[in-house]
Design a protein that fits this description.
GH, Immunoglobulin-like, alpha+beta, TIM Barrel, 4 domains, 804 residues, glycosidase, hydrolase activity, hydrolyzing O-glycosyl compounds
Amino acid sequence: MINDLAARGKQEFFPGQVLSCSQQGSDFLFTCDNGVQLSVQVITDKILRFRYATEVGFAADFSYAVPADQPRAALEFLEFREKPDHYRITTERLICTISKLNTAARILDRSGTLLSADEKGFHWEYDYETGNDIVKMSKQVQSGVHYYGLGDKPDNMNLRGKRFTNWGTDTYGYTKGSDPLYKNIPFYLELQQKIAHGIFFDNTFKASFDFAAERADVTSFWAMGGEMNYYFIYGPTLTEVTQEYTRLTCPPELPPLWALGYHQCKWSYFPESNFRSIAKGFRERKIPCDALYLDIDYMDGYRCFTWSPTHFPEPKKMVRELAEDGFKTIVIIDPGIKIDPNYSVYKEGLENDYFCRRADGPLMKGSVWPGLCNFPDYTRPDVREWWAGLFKGLIQEDGVRGVWNDMNEPAVFEKGTFPDDVRFHYDGHSASHKKAHNIYGMQMARATAAGVKQFSYPNRPFTITRSTYAGGQRYSSAWTGDNIASWEHLWLANIQCQRLSISGFSFVGSDVGGFIDTPDGELYVRWVALAAFHPFFRTHSSGDHGDQEPWSFGEQYLDLARGFIELRYRLLPYMYTTFWQYVQDGTPVLRPLTFLDQNDTETYLRMAEFSLGDHLLVCPITQAGADGRWMYLPRGDWFYYWTDEAKTGGAEVWASAPLDRIPLFVKAGAVIPMYPLMQYVGEKKVEELTLHVYYKQGSETSVVYEDGGEGYGYQQGQSTTRRFTVTGTAASLTLTQTIEGDYQPSFTTYRVVFHGFGVGQATADGQETAVAETSEQGLVLPQVLVASNFTQIVATPLKEEKAS
């Protein structure tokens, strides 16, 4: 007799025939003859949630990504019909059919276009070692399909033909194609037949995604435990898919305006005299900078929440004096708590049993920077509250303005991460490390954010994390980890920041210049030029590889780097407005070319070009020695920022870009707001806002949001939204403004600079106003000065003198 139990244990199981379906409001429960159940929830008319249970009854419904208290909007239209071989659910936007044979789902839009169809559909395999089900989903590949998203994957923008795994990993010196990486965002977008939808697989176990890699006609995703629990998110545009996903998992609050300025970091600035000299270097050289960072060497023996008495004997005084010069001090905090009976944080954690334990009871021990450590269980509410309270000293007492969480994949020297048998509370749904690993960094960031927010009040908090999970954008900004000073990594920084942005996590940047090794001046300047258009803008490097301040490469490169940092500071009102749109509407701050025009198939495989907000198009130089590049302009009319040359899109164009330029185009009809140059946010009162107005034959609307950039008044309505519409004809350019909100910004005047239109005469609200000339980027352009509450400006060309 042959024992085939092992082989049978590896077999795949499938749902049986559907016996019944029950409806409760907008939730539908399908029950199969073999006990499998499928729950389909209509979250909105564009979002359907699918949950499968392999045995009768679902586990408690709990998610770290989707807040439980989110209200479900009433549906305008919902219809449920039973047909001979399937059930049909119809919303205002979608049709979903469930096969009676095996629960296979098909989703169509209301015009009948097939968007998604199960191949094998849901199936599973029992894992004898863990007792978990390995849950799997496979879907048919529709014709002409393309895939995007999935967080920080360092690969081509279009994911078709690739396979990836989510298992947060400290990947020092990763390269193109390295997988997995630090972040775990199981959300991807699919574009086919110019219609977009997304899939969010809300499962925290190690998960994999195959985008038609193994089989060209099948895409699939699976996890090593937990539920098959995913959301289908309809567009029909790519931007709308990201917006719906971001709203589902919740966007962040607005950051303080200074957090969008330039940051300088190194492993490590110490002692205090060195840290102060870095600050002095910025101010003496007139390089704008808002934040300076302290890496692990500021601590006493790498003990979190302490200061080294030798390196930083008077931290409160130092932080205060730096703040008087406009610098915000940011400090690193890792999860590893040094095992030291004389260390108060360790003693509190031990006495209250706040640390993670192994399955049989011993505390989890692992070596990181302080040596042997224990690690808090951030999945416990009381531990998060304790951890948040630990920030009182650093933030409220010492004046530190932000916190940087690192090593929170979680990383352990030599071993990589925690053993599988480490136990977690998981907010009342006890779990092993297999389930909690991918959300550990997110929950640490959550606890940190709570503490920084509590003790920063009435100011807004600022935090940054290396590892996160879907929804982690609520708690923190992020960077792309331990990159390398290479042209390939400059290329990767561009792709990764775009990919994170369309995956709901827009407040992101890279270590400018590379963390590992040292760039030459050319590479550093090209990197600064790109990062000036990323939401999070920070140079960071390892001290093992030399200095990496903007002045480290000689005067020539210093002047060039300073120029791009200055441009960033002038663009802060545009950047802040774009961030406000992200917070309000879930709109990604960085948008790949495909997002700008998904009806143009030329955009599908391109990845260098991206837009920052609605009206700026950027394309970095990622090759040494280049003095420009070919790039693709989306359809429409554009102006080259540096020369005002008008270009028509829908074609490749050559962008001349010596080292003092980055290929940068402005959309015709745009109004780009700019501040006067400052060395740090709040250095001086902004009395005049410059509006750069770009001519368009037709009309275009822009928005400028203002709220003071600090504090929470904006949540009580203390903000102003200004909408500008440019309308151009051959004979005139009209600029209209509507103002929503009662907040009074510090500026009372606009300096309106016209591009692409020779202004001879202008009126503001019917009154003639003087037209003058101004110099911008070496260009002589017409300008007018008007009150900031104007309603309409009409500009016309100089009248031709009549022949005598």
